[in-house]
Amino acid sequence: MKQKSLTRLGLRQGLLVTMLAASFGLSAGTALADGGINQHADEILRAMSDYMGGTRSLSFEADISNEVVTVEGQKLQFNSYATVEVERPSHFRIKRKGRFADVALSYDGSEMTLYGKELNAHMQKPFAGTIDDALREFERSTGLPLPGVDLLLVNAYAALSGDVTSSGYYGTAWVGGVECHHLAFRTPKVDFQVWVDSGEHPLPRKYVITTKWTTGAPQYSVQLRNWNTQPEFGRERFKFIPPEGSLKIDTLPVDDTGEITLPQENK
User: Fold this and answer.
1) Residue 138's domain is classified under what CATH number?
2) pLDDT 10s digits, 212-227
């Protein structure tokens, strides 16, 4: 009797493990992914890049979370909201409202402008080139990385996969009510994950970068929604016209979290 009870208990435990594994999309007793490049993940990433790069124009909204680890070891998460508008080959506007600053980075094909709404100040840099050129020039000239903008490049696949040492495909999951392929990639410095719409439009729905060799392994996460891959923009949409009284500045203030900030009076 005792042996039968133990047998039934073992069967129930085994069944429970199998059910739990299935509920998480895993196979009981099987590793999620082996080392090396997962061809399925690679193909989906390439399909996403081809689709994005092939759009003449696009727009979307994004919820951004940026983690920072303090010297005391406390992990803090700073959240912001962004809207992105792109018209290839040489126009974009990215508006972001963060912890202290409400800023917009725009490019009209000949000039890049960073504008701080609350201070009513702007910084400009003449530059001619493509969207890819302008984004890289902004990073080079300011020393500030722009996490997540790789997704906007005409060949996001090349930018994302260049240093990848291994990757994995983790089935499908739901992001913002949309079923997505869950992809994960490793590079020597960072790991990143991408959730790509599994429908006919392989758009990125979530993107997470983990800085794994920094204490606490902070993450930068972007959830993308309200996609429009055929927006129509007016001729002057991306040209910056300084609001009345806007102050032109020469330097770019940045706080200790890496946020672009502009000093605000009485705050």
Assistant:
1) 2.50.20.10
2) 988 889 999 999 999 9
Q: For the sheet with 219-228, list strands across it.
A: 166-175, 178-186, 191-197, 204-210, 219-228, 57-69, 75-87, 91-97, 102-107, 111-116, 121-126, 247-248
Is 201 part of any domain?
Answer: no
In this model, does residue 157 exceed pLDDT 70?
yes
Domain count, the chain: 1
CA distance 103 to 218: 24
ω into residue 126 within 30 of 0, thus cis? Answer: no
Name the residue range of residue 46's domain: 39-162+224-248
Q: Is 25 left (phi over 0), alpha (psi -120 to 50) or beta?
A: left
Cα 76 from Cα 82, distance rounded (Å): 20
In the chain, what are the helix, strand and coil shares in percent, each to the nearest 5? 20, 35, 40
Domain assignment present for residue 188? The answer is no
